[in-house]
């Protein structure tokens, strides 16, 4: 059996599997190795919202030699991602709530480097987490032909690739057409996350997202950081102050400093816990 936790950061939900401790998973060494050898197949099955648990993907929590823990993220299509802002907040909550640490400041190893977390605890449980995301690198605006139309796009790297498109109405963003086409556009080698962003005024943004490897999701933490960084570069939002980014699943607070450093703050919640029959997803 493989035991898991279903957790969410404003609707960006993942299945979390503890690869650290034999107390949490019976025959953990055998079962975890089976899982890792079948990770694409397993992720696709467990992420399926009709025949599986249902999620935007899975996150493995592993031991680390250079940080308090390591996380690996797999999108619902089985591809591995470098970073997930909503996901890493839940990793911090998992480690604290399960008693793996009593510290309120943690370092988590990811494929995009070590990220520092600050945990906000109430009644012995983590309710909110701030993540020091590193620097957002805002690129030169591109004008791309997408679905037969010219589209102004701002590339942003937050440890993973994003394409920010400012729009007058994010509610009507063409996620399934333009968003899907942007993900695989030849201008972005290896694919990209596509954000459609509306400026609401007074350091507030409305954002909707088509995530690389997952499609439409209720939230994307790194996408919110990328959108806020692009808005600061465009002069729409103020640096060094919280920017409210409203996503389909809820609101994140993003602070973009003048040197490009970004801090993201938002909730982390446990939905439920359960067990899978095996790691092969047969």
Weakly predicted, low-confidence segments? none
Structural class: alpha+beta
Largest sheet: 19 strands, mixed
Helix amount: 10-25%
State the separation between the terminal residues, measured CA to CA: 13 Å
- Overall pLDDT level: 93
Number of strands: 19
The total count of helices amounts to 5
Strand content: 35-45%
What order do the SSEs take from the amino end to the carboxyl end, as H and E?
EEHHEEEHEEEEEEEHEEEHEEEE
Give an account of the 3D structure:
This protein is an alpha+beta fold and 282 residues long. It has 5 helices and 19 strands. It has helices at residues 28-37, 39-47, 85-97, 175-183, 221-233, and strands at 2-9, 12-18, 57-62, 69-75, 80-81, 105-110, 113-122, 125-135, 137-138, 142-146, 149-157, 161-166, 193-199, 204-211, 215-217, 242-247, 250-256, 261-267, 269-276. It has a 19-stranded mixed sheet that branches. It starts with a strand and ends in a 6-residue tail after the last strand. The model has no long low-confidence stretch (mean pLDDT 93).
Describe the protein's topology.
Elements: E1 2-9, E2 12-18, H1 28-37, H2 39-47, E3 57-62, E4 69-75, E5 80-81, H3 85-97, E6 105-110, E7 113-122, E8 125-135, E9 137-138, E10 142-146, E11 149-157, E12 161-166, H4 175-183, E13 193-199, E14 204-211, E15 215-217, H5 221-233, E16 242-247, E17 250-256, E18 261-267, E19 269-276
Parallel strand pairs: 2-3, 4-6, 12-13, 14-16
Antiparallel strand pairs: 1-2, 1-19, 3-4, 4-5, 6-7, 7-8, 8-18, 9-11, 10-11, 11-12, 13-14, 14-15, 16-17, 17-18
